[in-house]
Amino acid sequence: MDFKKIVDQVKDAAEDLKEKAGAKIKEARENLDQDHDNIPDALEGLTDKAKKLAEQAEAKAKELAEKAEDTFDEAADRLGKMADQTKAKLGEVKDEAEKAVGQAREKLGMSDKDVKKS
Q: What is the 3-state secondary structure (H, E, C) of the chain?
């Protein structure tokens, strides 16, 4: 065999291999992207799942924020009521203390004028 014939055979084999590889690549692309939009279908599925999960996470975050705000509002209302009740009780205690002081002064025979002088 001469050298040129061997080179031609290698060249033909390489060309044949190139065509087979091209066909396999085309087949693989078609299998990966059946809707022919140049985005692999598996990736599209993952993108859709990621979008759904993001939407669910956003909805859950909003729900939790609303619950936190409601809880805060309820706590603020309860604290306001407790403050009002405390003020009322302090007023009652003050009134009772003033009565007790007045009664003690009466028993001791003291007047308001005597207390102011000292």
A: CCHHHHHHHHHHHHHHHHHHHHHHHHHHHHHHCCCCCCCCHHHHHHHHHHHHHHHHHHHHHHHHHHHHHHHHHHHHHHHHHHHHHHHHHHHHHHHHHHHHHHHHHHHHCCCHHHHHHC
